[in-house]
Amino acid sequence: MSASSPPRKRVDLINDPIGKSLRLFAIPLAFSFVVNMVYSLIDRFYVSRLGDAAIAAIGSSDQVVFFLFTLVSGFAVGTGIIVSRRFGEGDHTGASRTATQALVGMAVMAATVSGLVYLLLPTVPLLMRMSPEVAELSLQYLGMLLLGFTCNLLNFQMFSIVRSTGNSIFPMKVLVTTVILNAVIAPFLIFGIGPFPELGMKGAGLATALSQMCGTAIALTALLRGKTNMKLDFTEFKLDYDLLSRVAKQGFPASLQMLSVSVNRAVIFTFVSSFGVQVTAAYTLGLNVDMFVFMSVFAVGISVETATGQNLGAGKPDRVWGFHRSAVKQMSALMVSLAIIVWFFGRPFIELYSSNPATIDEATRYLHITVFGYVFFAIGLITVRVMSGAGSAVISMLVTSGCLLGLQLPLSYFLSHATGLGSTGIWVGITAGYMVFAAVAWLVLRSKIWMKARV
User: Fold this and answer.
1) Is the pLDDT of residue 339 over 80?
2) Same domain, 37 and 156
3) What pLDDT, on a 0 to 100 scale, did the predictor assign at position 59?
4) Distance CA 230, CA 439 (A)
């Protein structure tokens, strides 16, 4: 397929019925997010056989990787926004050129970050105040994991590119392949099965790195051969710094937005920890339930973002509003259903992970309060994704960061420390923050200032 030929085998977000196309695009994407969660659970499952220090090491290492990923991955988000706009305009050559330039740019950034972190690796345990035993195991794991970090970011970049054309099936297939590969080779490398040496934590990191490298090879081959509605074009390739700066302009606010979410969660953890280990454990368990529920919200959010870019490029702004309405209706119904399920079955789920009555009671209280924020979180996130899909990444970032850092955090602290609510005040503050997030995002959306962005 040439760079200028029409796309094949994708969800047509520009012409197909809105509700149906939204579901067809979002369902594989949601499944991809669930698969991604399984990715980390596999390493945790095998590593748990090495002891508590190994579990702590992989948890601490994941925080480091997540922070680095957040800083750089916004570039992929910016790429997706521009590619979807060019695709909607029918400029497949421009979409291909943007994808090619951005992929090379990501490779340079990812390799640079990986190299710098590898050189500074010995300082990581000191900054995170790890115990000597945990520090040693964490360095072993991170040292191997960094071998695949560049490929991890390249995969995220390529998945963003492919999804921007309306194809959410291919990224899901690659993710499933890498998860299966990691699950198969990890025990051989960790425990030294058969002819393989026993590498312990190094084996866990190496297995993940190798599976990520495999994913990169699969995705890159498909993009080079034009098998995913998009074909990379390296003919007379030369870095276009103006184009790369436009991608970065879209991506930097996206990185800040994701970073604000990470900071928000970290600060809430500090609030929670002041009430003791049981409350901290309860919040951790409750948050795991929330994250599973929100997988569908994240998927629909990206779907709406992609549909916004394509339809604005195609000169069909009415469909943007249609996608927003459809997404809000469908996700509101789903969130209400999931909230009811969590209300009644959240406690039995918590009991699978804890036998401490105090922890179970606190986690149940957390879920019985935060379920009232599910619908509002979904509305807020879907709405800011419309703005970012239109190219107004700064406005999307300001709404999200302002509501989470500027209101949810101080409200949670005030209600928990300045009233008699205690830890319950944090749960109320989180829920109230989601409500304000939805209201502010909706008001900004109706103002239409986000439609003035140029991509």
Assistant:
1) yes
2) yes
3) 67
4) 38
Separation of alpha carbons 420 and 446, rounded Å: 38
Helices and strands (H and E) in the chain: how many? 16, 0
Among the listed residues 10, 76, 36, the one whose alpha carbon sits nearest the alpha carbon of residue 250: 76
Q: Alpha-carbon distance 298 to 167, whole Å?
A: 16
User: pTM of the predicted model, to two decimals?
Assistant: 0.84
Token pair in block for residue 224: 């080079």
Domain count along the chain? 2
Q: From CA 309, how far away is CA 338, in angstroms rounded?
A: 29
Scored b (16 or more CB within 10 A) or e, 92-122 reads bebbbbbbbbbbbbbbebbeebbeebeeeee
Asked, for residue 289, whether it belongs to a domain, the answer is yes
pLDDT tens, position by position, 187-239: 999 999 888 889 999 999 999 999 999 999 999 999 999 888 888 988 878 98
Containing domain of residue 66, as a range?
A: 18-239
Q: Which residues contact 445 (CB under 8 A, 6 or more apart)?
A: 324, 383, 386, 387
| Contact present, 140 and 202 (Cβ < 8 Å) | yes
3-state SS, residue 134: helix
Average pLDDT, the chain: 88
Query: What percent of the chain shows pLDDT beyond 70?
Result: 96
